Amino acid sequence: MAQRAKYFEQEKLDVVIVPGNATDNPLEVLRKGGADVAVSTLRSAIAFANGGHRVTNVAQIHQSSPILLICRASSGIAEASDILGKKIGVSGGGDVQILDALVRALSPEGSSVIKVPRDGTGRSLIDGDAACISGVTFNELLRVENAGIDAADLLLIYPDTYGVVDFGDGLYVRTERLDSPEFRAQLVGLLRALAKGWRDARKNPSLAVSQTLERNPTLERQFQSQALEQVLDLIPTNSFGLLQLEQLDRLADNKAQDGSKASIPNEVWTHRVWNEWQQSEGLAKAITPATQHALNQVARYPVFLWMVNIGTLLFALGGALLAIDRGYNFWGRLLVAAIPALGGAAVRDLMIGGSRLPYYFIADPTLPLAILAIVVVSSVLVAVYPSCVKSPRYRVVMFVANVIGSAVIATNGAIVALNAHVPWVWVPVFAAISCAGGGLLLDVVTNKHPGAFRGGLFEDEERGVLSGVTLLVFLWGANQLESPGLLVYSGVIAAVVLNMAVLLQKDALLKYYPKWLSASKDNSVES
After folding, report:
1. Which of 251, 293, 284 is nearest to 268 (CA)?
2. What's the pLDDT at 129?
3. For the chain, which terminus, N or C, has the lower number of CB atoms within 10 Å?
4. What are phi and psi of 474, to 5 degrees?
């Protein structure tokens, strides 16, 4: 479709398609100089790279794997584990690796299957020569179904269901050629033209099938229409060509669980060409997919999550003690405890919308229940030991908790905003809202002038902005790297530490603060 519409010519490319076959490995053809770009799978590329050959994925066309096992119930296959000890038809390509991984997942004790050769027609399953065959959704599965086998006699086993991760077709080049700006520019043009070609195929599938039949008149129109429908399910309408790093992480975990010694070389993939394509189209986002992936990992780290939750609960404790000091009843204490703990995040998530709604504390009531427990315990403790909240040790603990908690919550607010893909200019704002918004709401509820407007210098909202800006600076640097994890982690730590340092050195920093920005002469808040 891309050649028909002359999209390659528009990119000043002369593209020649070299047909594949059942015997030649496309990556070997690539290595020998028989092609500039090869269509292959990531598992094959990893095996090829671990064999000493340097190849790199520059675009992942399929965003999910089409490979599956097609079995017949009449051959004794009622569930996935029944394949053990049975004859399985394989092509001898990447499907063998996937089958081996699936067998290890189904039988950790070391059972095996009997591998027999198959072709691409599905005959070995249709004729009963094998209990199962490996295949893809757009070929073998269609041929078996079209042969008239009763659907009740078919069991489809998708390896991904059992933790066996696979990537479908991607585009691969020799790694050393990526050092050439001219070659990368050609690859950007190739990717742009292919994206347009697949867009046209989706809009006009009948024309796409006709173009295929023009190249090979021996093919069957109905089958090609069915195959195209299956293939289009593998290719998303957005993020065309992007290798998803979450899938790569799952593949690495899968290899570790399998005990596989084959590592995943860093150079076996790159986003460099994809990023340059997005930049040329004016579609590049504030942070690259690799940086976004590293930031998502930080947000899921148990240590970071624990710090956010502890900071949130300490805010709740401060609110509960304030309510007790003012003589509020139990419901008043619960409300005043919940507002500073959850209010800032609620305002932030309401403004972001989308995936941030419903609120996280509604979807998972663990945090509200923890706040309820804090109110109950603090009420009992103050009733039994009224002097505990006046002790110097208590004040030190609460001060340290506020320093750490507000810094972590502000940084988490910036991460939440970035992971929600809001424009970068709002990131510092949401960082400030996350840690200061709850206090502002509490002041309104308790009939006070908002401290955020009349508070002292370098308070929560200003330090929240500082955390957001600091994180953005580090992420900008991370965008320049292929593997930005270390710089992203450093940015998160810097955002937290700098926030804490400013609060601890607030008095020393006052002389640098413009007087005309001060809230009042003495920068104090009304009681």
Report:
1. 251
2. 95
3. C
4. -65, -40
CATH code, domain with 140: 3.40.190.10
Report the run of H or E that residue 205 belongs to, with start and end: helix 205-215
Same domain assignment for residues 183 and 108: no
Distance of CA 203 to the CA centre of its chain: 29
Q: Report phi then psi at 313, rounded to 5.
A: -70, -30
Structure tokens at 443: 């002041």
Residue pair 184/101 in contact by the 8 Å Cβ criterion: no
**DSSP assigned state of 267:** G
Q: How far apart are CA 354 and CA 420, in angstroms?
A: 8
CA 341 from centre of chain:
28
10 Å Cβ neighbour count for 346?
A: 22
Asked if the model's pLDDT at residue 527 lies above 50, the reply is: no
Q: What is the pTM of this model?
A: 0.85
User: pLDDT-derived band of residue 392, with 50, 70 and 90 as boundaries?
Assistant: confident
DSSP three-state, residue 56: strand
The chain-wide mean pLDDT, for the chain, equals 90
- The CA distance from 211 to 197, in Å, is 12
Q: What is the CA radius of gyration of the chain?
A: 30
pLDDT at 15: 97
User: Which ranges in 36-180 belong to alpha helices (H)?
Assistant: 42-50, 94-106, 123-126, 140-146
Tally the domains of the chain. Answer: 3
Q: pLDDT confidence of 314, banded at 50, 70, 90?
A: confident
Using an 8 Å Cβ cutoff, are 164 and 105 in contact?
yes
If you average pLDDT over residues 307-314, what whole number do you get? Answer: 89
Record the tokens describing residue 420, joined without a space.
Answer: 């929600």
- In the numeric block, the tokens 């709604």 are attached to 357
SS3 87: strand
Regarding whether 71 and 53 lie in a shared domain, the answer is no
- Dihedral angle computed from the Cα positions of residues 60, 234, 25 and 179, in that order, rounded to the nearest 10 degrees: -10
Range of the domain at 105: 67-162
Q: Does one domain contain both 30 and 174?
A: yes
